[in-house]
Amino acid sequence: MTWHAVTIAGYLLVVAGIVVLQLLATKTRVPVPTFGELLSRAMRSRTGRVGVLVAWAWIGLHFFAR
Amino acid sequence: MSRAAPGPEDRHAQNRGTDSGGTATGCAEAVVTPPRPAGRALAALAALAGLRAPVVWILLAIAFFTSISGKPVDGVLMLIVAVGLAWDAGRRALRHPETGEATARTDRLPGRRRRVVVITLVVAGVVYAGVVGSFSRYSWPATAGIIGLSTGVVLIGWHRPVRARPDGGRLPVAGTLAWIVVLVAGCLWELSSLYLQPSLTTDSYAHPTISTLTDPLLATSPGRMLVLFAWVAFGWYLVDR
Questions:
Q1: pTM for the complete prediction?
Q2: Does pLDDT of B26 surpass 50?
Q3: What is the pLDDT of residue B45?
Q4: Measured between CA atoms, how close is B209 to chain A, in angstroms?
Q5: Mean pLDDT on A60-65
Q6: ipTM of this complex
Q7: For FRET with B142, which of A11, B8, B31, B232 sits at 20 to 30 Å CA-CA?
Q8: Number of Cβ pairs closer than 8 Å across A and B?
């Protein structure tokens, strides 16, 4: 297995983890918050709200801006 | 009257009960308003107090790593927000430590009006993605479009949430930790790929970052438009939280 494949597998594992947690939160009674609930909790304070919005802005800047 | 730099009257007014006549108003004001340190010292104190917020440190770290990765504009913008947030958080903590969050601007819009707003925003998002996505990556027009929208969204969310939401109470600890583990693992995996490249600005086939993996998609105009629309939609979702 090449390092390229290992790196891709790592990313896929993280994506799978996100999907599994979201499914556990929405389709079962397991006490896991949904991604939306997590964001709402993080954005309850001003610093949290600005932090999350800046993280979103950073994604756009990183992929498109100079 | 400015409160930043106390004038002779203000200083005098703090000696309550020893003056009369023209300083009487100042005396009354001094009784209800506690004396404050000088403006510059207060600003420094506020910024230091704001450093207690973990988000500020995360933003400073992002600013640092972004800058050394060859994206100085991103780094400077992150630094500005980090300093602004630290100052703002510290200022509020120093002046009104008991003050809670500001209330939301609006409650959920009624059905028909909300539909109109949704349709308008979707059309605006499509137009935005079409225009900005037509510019090549890292060009100045694309940069201006991204910075313009980002600044607007961050400013909208700075003071208060857009609409009121019920307090969901405490989140389950184990489930929340599971989310944190997965998300932090993703960030560390990306960071490790970045540092395993030949240099921070040279891509690696063996250790591709998410940027490297998305390059083929973002090299085409339709791909950029698609990703930009998803980015705008996610931003809207966040503002609406």
A1: 0.76
A2: no
A3: 73
A4: 9
A5: 90
A6: 0.93
A7: A11
A8: 173
**Nearest residue in A to B221, CA atom:** A64
Segments making up each domain of chain B, as ranges: 1-36, 38-100
B28 pLDDT more than 70: no
Q: Hey, are the CB atoms on A62 and B74 less than 8 Å from each other?
A: yes
Q: How far is CA B196 from CA B59, B67, B183, B193, B210, in A?
A: 23, 18, 20, 5, 13
What average pLDDT does this structure show over A42-46? 87
Residue A47: domain span:
33-66
Which residue in B132, B142, B168 is closest to A37 by CB distance? B168
Separation in Å, CA of B69 to nearest CA in chain A: 10
- Please check whether residue B174 is in contact with residue B168, taking contact to mean a CB–CB distance below 8 angstroms: no
Say whether both A27 and A38 belong to one domain. Answer: no
**Window 26-65 of A, Cβ < 8 Å to B:** 30-33, 35-41, 43-54, 56-65
In the prediction, which pLDDT does B69 show?
A: 78
CA A49 – CA B78 distance, rounded (Å): 15
